[in-house]
Amino acid sequence: MGIRFTVLSSGSTGNATVIAYEDIKLMIDAGFSARRIDELLAEREVSGEELNGILVTHEHSDHIKGLGAVARKYNLPIYANELTWAAMEKQIGAIPEENRRIFGTGEARDFGSLRVESFPVSHDAAEPVGYCFYDGKEKLSVVTDLGYASDRVLQAISGSDVLVLESNHDVEMLRMGRYPWNIKRRILGDMGHLSNEAAGEVMSLLMNGRVKRTYLAHLSREHNMLDLAKMSVREAMEDRGCFYKDSEFKLCETYYDRPTPWDAVGSL
User: Fold this and answer.
1) CB within 8 A of 231, min separation 6: which ones?
2) Is the pTM here over 0.90, yes or no?
3) To the nearest 10°, the Cα dihedral for 50, 51, 52, 58?
């Protein structure tokens, strides 16, 4: 079957994704209550007992709200780097020592035949990361919560067949929105979130590779809309000379309130 995945939900209020490969199922982040995570998993016919562990990107609440509860309920190992562990320990409660796994930034781990690599991103957290998943043939990269795409990020996600990429906000909607200016400045800064246009710029740099689909993720409910995000990303790509047919490449949606369908990374 190759690598499959579903974005259980993504947005400013919570984030969780499940990656499946052979008999391995890993969850990235757990940004909802344990009850809500169970509901989202059930919508994709997965139970918590099937999970083999949880990978953590960073310690903000929309990524770890239910982490401790889910890990304790299903006796799951949690994988995070040392600084993220230190930053989130008080938020997630007691975790058995055998389930506290250090996954250093820039390191790779094998889960069966699935290789997972973490890489650093720029965000206002202790030591935030994205993740790439390989099986020797297919590659999936998941990267959200970054103020800009550094050369290191671009190097890490290059060669991906499928991307889950942040497209958080429309700059003008954010500038005109009700947030106080200090919050707007944080979101717009290099340690904040990727705008629609910035996501389009990232994609224009990757389109000479093998990427077939990009899921636009972590959309702000206050300062973005799905149709606007897709239109803006496509326009930003075209402005940089990157034109494509829908039969060759697709921009896909994620949702704040429901999972995406299961997607096989190797499918056309």
Assistant:
1) none
2) yes
3) 180
The C-alpha atoms of residue 152 and residue 244 are separated, in whole angstroms, by 26
Q: How far is 110 from 132, CA to CA, in rounded Å?
A: 12
Please tell me the predicted confidence (pLDDT) of residue 260. 98
Average pLDDT, the chain: 96
Own/partner pairs, 174-178, CB within 8 angstroms, 24+ separation: 174/220, 174/223, 177/222, 177/223, 178/222
Q: What is the dihedral of CA 226, 214, 120, 223, to 10 degrees?
A: -10
Identify the three-state secondary structure at position 15: strand
Predicted local distance difference test score (pLDDT) of residue 246: 81
Of 257, 218, 262, residue with least CA distance to 21: 262
CB 70 within 8 A of CB 95: no
Q: Return the minimum-mean-pLDDT range out of 62-66, 158-162, 246-250.
A: 246-250
Q: Write out pLDDT tens, residues 151-205.
A: 999 999 999 999 999 999 999 999 999 999 999 999 999 999 999 999 999 999 9
Chain-centre distance of CA 133, in angstroms? 12
Strand 114-120 with 129-134, pairing: antiparallel
Secondary-structure percent of the chain, ordered helix, strand, coil, rounded to 5: 30, 25, 40
